[in-house]
Design a protein that fits this description.
eight-stranded mixed beta sheet; globular; single chain; alpha/beta; 13 helices; 321 residues
Length: 321
């Protein structure tokens, strides 16, 4: 609920300034809470970032299911929800990079609808032969080039919104936070599925998918002292997945291993958005439009709650400026 003192404040404003505009005998279905949120939110939209809570958006891993993140971003952009930090793992890093580089949402939607496994890897008959008989893993270097083509060869310092990509050190098991250097490289490293793609070399480390250490990295947002954390979970429903390929089997094993830790992380968030995409496989890119739509619907469902939390964590003096 909205804080009582804020409700009283806005109620006074309402009585003095807005009551003459309404006729409560007109049969209009008037919702006081929605009205108060709307009035206060207009104030929030005009505040400088230093006068409102710091908002973090955490985007989890999930392969093709992560396309739902795009729908979430479409919804929060439409509602002017401020985002001061994005933390992403795996596909969450990829979508987060597009968002932080301010690639138009509709363009990202179009890109997602054309996405295939060939977009981000060299998987073909020749490379499959090499893997089976020569012990050569696939490469996802193509993903880095793809990202560079879309966002440009930019560094983290050039992003409009700060981004942190989560990867895993193959040798130590450490969680590695990538927030300097090439954005495309970091997103690629965060998305490097172990056992399928070659580890990515970085500062004498070998990096693989961040999902092994933290698939929904809410704790990272906590480290950076964010006031409001919105987490997006695109976790698999392991009872409904039709698993048939080595990549799907490996990713399913990763999700099973990290499921309990994911729930612990989600408990740390202020708001959790759960697009209903758990039945889709990690490689189900053909359902991109459906994923985007489900992400949008899931985000719209909690927009009011997000606004209430941000309002409640904003100092009253700024709302009365």
């Amino acid at each position: 609920m909205i804080h009582i003192k804020k409700t009283i404040t806005v109620s006074i404003i309402f009585l003095f300034f807005f009551t003459p505009l309404f006729s409560f005998d007109s049969g209009v279905d008037f919702n006081e809470e929605d009205f108060l949120i709307d009035i206060l939110w207009r104030k929030i939209e005009k505040l400088d970032s230093g006068k409102r809570p710091k908002v973090a958006l955490v985007l989890g891993g999930g392969g093709a299911r992560g396309i739902a993140h795009i729908g979430v971003l479409r919804a929060i952009s439409k509602e002017c929800i401020p985002v001061d930090l994005v933390v992403g793992t795996s596909v969450g890093s990829l979508v987060g990079a597009f968002y932080c580089a301010q690639v138009p949402i509709e363009k990202v939607c179009n890109l997602a609808e054309q996405f295939t496994i060939g977009t981000f890897s060299n998987i073909n008959y020749i490379s499959m032969f090499d893997m089976l008989f020569m012990d050569n893993l696939f490469s996802n270097q193509k993903l880095e080039k793809y990202m560079n083509d879309i966002i440009g060869n930019i560094g983290f310092e050039e992003l409009k919104i700060p981004l942190i990509c989560v990867a895993t050190d193959l040798n130590t098991g450490e969680k590695i936070l990538l927030r300097e250097g090439s954005v495309a490289f970091a997103a690629r490293a965060s998305s490097t599925i172990p056992g399928i793609f070659k580890p990515v070399e970085y500062k004498q480390r070998y990096l693989i998918d961040g999902g092994l250490t933290e698939n929904i990295p809410v704790s990272v947002a906590k480290i950076f002292n964010c006031d409001v954390i919105i987490a997006v979970s695109v976790a698999a429903d392991i009872t409904k997945n039709n698993i048939s390929t080595p990549i799907e089997i490996l990713m399913q094993a990763i999700y099973i291993q990290g499921r309990m830790f994911d729930e612990y992380n989600l408990d740390l968030a202020d708001i959790v958005i759960r697009p209903e995409v758990g039945y889709l496989s990690v490689l189900d890119f053909k359902n991109a439009s459906c994923c985007i739509n489900k992400g949008f619907i899931a985000a719209k469902r909690v927009i009011k709650d997000i606004k209430k939390i941000i309002i409640n964590k904003t100092e009253e003096k700024y709302l009365l400026e």
